[in-house]
Design goal:
With about 240 residues, the chain is an alpha/beta fold. About 45% of the residues lie in helices and about 20% in strands. The longest helix is centred in the N-terminal third of the chain and has 23 residues. The two termini are about 30 Å apart.
């Protein structure tokens, strides 16, 4: 059964996810850093380091949200970063952030569907995604689209939540994700369902080696997975 934000809503996952992020966009950045105790910032830094050797000049940030990952990618000194997302609410927050940081001449945020990317094939030197693939309506279609628009030899880097396996950490993780995260999300955002959907979607996601296998099946080479912070999130990579 597909995990969706609003169980009584007959619309598909894609529309529900867009609606959810439109609703929480104003509080998203604060809650993201607050609920992860700021650890998510370090995760993004580690992800960007995987691209340092290749020095990509044209980067695509899929499911860019408010643009945090695109901004982090500036460490690579790219010529241009294009971020796409289905939530116009998140993009509006991101565009204001880029203007404030004076990065809007290098980073462009566009409305776009990750499963039907509006770009030519073999266009981007690198593609990055942070906490977005879990929300795809069709995971394989989204990953295949990213492979299509990636240049031969280009690298895909994905950050995504995962399920810890260490016995000593799992009980704490499950308690925090099941009770604390939804309670804080409900109190500080306008959408209680969003932070119930979060742990549900993580549980349903094919993480670790299962996700690496999907990347390999689709044609990505040199695939890898690295668990971060007891396995709360994982860093995936693959090359076209």
């Amino acid at each position: 059964m597909e995990v969706v934000p609003y169980k009584n809503d007959p619309s598909g996952k894609k529309k529900q996810v867009a609606k959810m992020f439109d609703t929480i966009s104003g509080n998203y950045d604060f809650l993201n850093h607050f609920l992860s105790f700021g650890v998510d910032i370090g995760w993004r830094r580690k992800a960007i380091r995987l691209l340092e050797k290749s020095s990509p000049k044209l980067i695509l940030d899929v499911a860019t949200g408010t643009g945090d990952f695109a901004i982090q990618a500036m460490k690579l000194n790219p010529t241009q970063v294009i971020g796409v997302d289905i939530s116009e609410g998140m993009l509006e927050v991101g565009r204001k952030k880029l203007v404030a940081k004076k990065l809007d001449h290098i980073i462009e945020l566009r409305t776009g569907d990750s499963e039907n990317l509006p770009f030519d094939s073999n266009k981007f030197d690198a593609i990055i995604v942070a906490f977005g693939v879990r929300n795809f309506e069709n995971l394989r279609q989204g990953l295949a689209e990213m492979l299509r628009v990636l240049k031969p030899g280009g690298r895909l880097v994905i950050l995504e939540f995962s399920k810890p396996t260490a016995w000593y950490f799992k009980p704490l993780y499950h308690f925090y994700f099941k009770f604390i995260t939804p309670a804080v999300g409900k109190a500080l955002s306008k959408d209680a369902a969003a932070y119930t959907y979060l742990p549900d979607s993580v549980r349903a996601f094919p993480d670790g080696e299962d996700f690496v296998s999907i990347l390999a099946e689709l044609g990505y080479k040199d695939t890898s997975c690295k668990a971060l912070t007891f396995g709360i999130s994982s860093l995936y990579s693959g090359v076209k």
